[in-house]
Amino acid sequence: MDRELDSITRLAVRGFKSISDWQEIEIRPLTILAGANSSGKSSIMQPLLLLKQTLEAPGDPGALLLDGPNVRFTMVEQMLSHVGGRSAADGFSVRFERACSETLELRYQPASQGRGMDVTRQTHRWSASGEVLEDLSPTRGEVSKDALSPQRLDMIATAAGVPRSSIGQRVVRDRCFLKVILVDRSRGDERGVSTLPTNVFTGMVFMPQLQSVIHVPGLRGNPSRTYATTATGPQFPGFFQAYVASLIAQWQEEKRDELRELARKMEDLGLTSRIKADAIDDTRLEVRVGRLPKGRRGGAHDLVNIADVGFGVSQSLPVLVALIAAEPGQLVYLEQPEIHLHPKAQRRLAHALCWAAKRDVRLVVETHSALLLREVQTLVARGEMPEGDVRLHWFARDDDGATQIRTAELDESGAYGDWPEDFSETELDAERAYLDAVEQRSVQQ
Amino acid sequence: MSSTSRRGKRALVVDASVARAAGETDHPRSKACRDFLTAILGICHRVVMNPTIREEWNRHESRFTRKWRVSMAARHKALNDGPAALTGLRLEQFPESARKAIEKDLCLIETALAADKEIVTLDRRLYDALGEAPSGERVRDEITWHDPVVDGTAKLGR
What we know:
The structure holds 2 protein chains of 2 kinds. By secondary structure, chain A is α+β, with helices and mostly antiparallel strands. Chain A contains 10 helices and 19 strands.
C-alpha cells in the first residue's frame, strides 16, 4: 500500500456531541487542534477512533463498538448532538477524504432493532468533481437496482460477460461499512456466479488508514515497573502506550537507528540520554532510563526503572516512540503531548513534531501549549518547516454550544493572521492584569 | 495635539516612550499605554517600525510589550517600513533646541509619513518642536497624533 497516497487528508463530522453542523478539518503533516476545554477538539477525532476500535474488535461488534479501548460510550445518546436545547440529533455522519481525492461519507443512526448504532448510508465520491460512485443504504435483503452507478455496473457486467439487467445488488453491513453483494438474477435463485465479483466493498479501501491510526491519549497512565510483551506493529490496536516497551526492546535487539533517534530526542527534551527495555521473563519487560538527563562518560550503566523518575519521562516516551515508529502517511493522533513537560522541553517537543511531519507522518496534535505553538511558528519562520505542511484549527463553541472551527494557514514568517485567539494573548492579559493591579495598589497606598 | 478621529485599518507608528511606560506601574500613564496597545491588538490597525524604532523598542521592552509585539507579529499586524518619506522639513529654519528634538525623532516622522501619518507618543517635545517653523507646522498638521494618556483610545476608531 502506498500510505502517502492513501493517507486521510480531510475529516468532517456532523451530529456528534457538540458538533451539530458539518465541521471539517484539513489534515496536513502537522495539524494542530487548539481551543478552550470542551470546545470539540476531541469530538472531531472520536468518530474516527470509533471506526478504528470497531474494525479492530474481535468478532463483529455491530456497526460501531461504543465502549472500546479508544472511546468509551455506554449509550448512543451520549454521542449525539443536543445543541441549543434541541432534541438529540437522529444520528451522526463522518466523512473522510484520501490523498487520492476519494471521499467516503458514512451515516450512523440508533439501531431500529436491537441496541447500538446502524450504518444507514454510505456515499463514495470523487472529491474534486463530487461525482457519486456509489450511494448505499441497507436493502434488508431486498434487491436494489441502483446501489452502484450505471457506469460502474456496466463495467462489472462487461467484465463478467453478463447483461447489466441480470445483475442484482444487495446492500449489507460489514462492520462499520456497507458493501454491495452482487447476484445473477437471471438464475432465479440470486446466487452469485463465478464470473461476477462477489461484492463491491469500498470500505475495504479505507480500512487500512483507519486501523493504522496511532492514538496517544491525554491520559497515559502511571509508569509501571513492568510492561506486558506485545506485538510491535505495523498496526497498534487500542492505545499506543501498550506497545512502547516492546518496540524499544525490538529496536534494541535489532540495533536499529530508531533507538538512537529516541535517545537523541529524549536528551534533546532534557529528560534522559539512555533508554533500555529488557525482558524480565517471557511475558514482561522492564523499561530503564539514564539517571542523568545528559550522557556522560561512564554513565552507560547508570540506569533506573522508569517508575523511579519524573512523570515527564514516562508521559513523553509514548509520544516520541510514536513519532519515530510511524510510517509516512500514517495518522498519529496525539492528545496533549506536552503534559508534564517543563516549558523548555515543550519548545523542544515542537522540533520532534516537525521532524516527524517532515517525514510526512500525518500528525494531529491537540494542545494547550502556547510555547509549542510558538516554536512551530519559529521553525516555519526560520525555513526549517514548510509553512504549507502546518494547519491550525481553532475550536470554539457558539452561543448555542455548537462547535465552530476556524482554520489558519501559516505564512512564510510563521504568522497566522486573523485567528480567533492566540494563547500568548492570554499571557498578555495576565501580564496586563498583574501590572494594573500593582499600579492600582501603589495608587491606593 | 490634533483631535481628528479616523476610521478604517491604518498603520501606526508607536514611539518607544509608550513601550517603556506600558511595562511600568506609573499611574495613570502605564495603564493608559497598556490599554492603548491592547486596543491596537484587538482592532484592525497595524504598527509599522523601521530599524531605529525597533532598536528603541528593544531597549525599553518589558515582558508585556514583548508579548504584545509577538502577538502583533503572529497576526500579521507588525509591518516593516518601506522607503522613508521625504519630510519636506527645512531644518535650518528651526531654533537649535527644536532642531535637535526633531533630528532625534526624525525616524518617527519619516516612517509615519510613508505609512498612514499617525504617531502614538507620550513625548510632546516633537510635536511642539515642529511648531517652531512653517515647514514643521505643515508636517505636524498632516499627522494624527495620539497621546494614550490624554486621548485614550478615542481617536483610534474601528
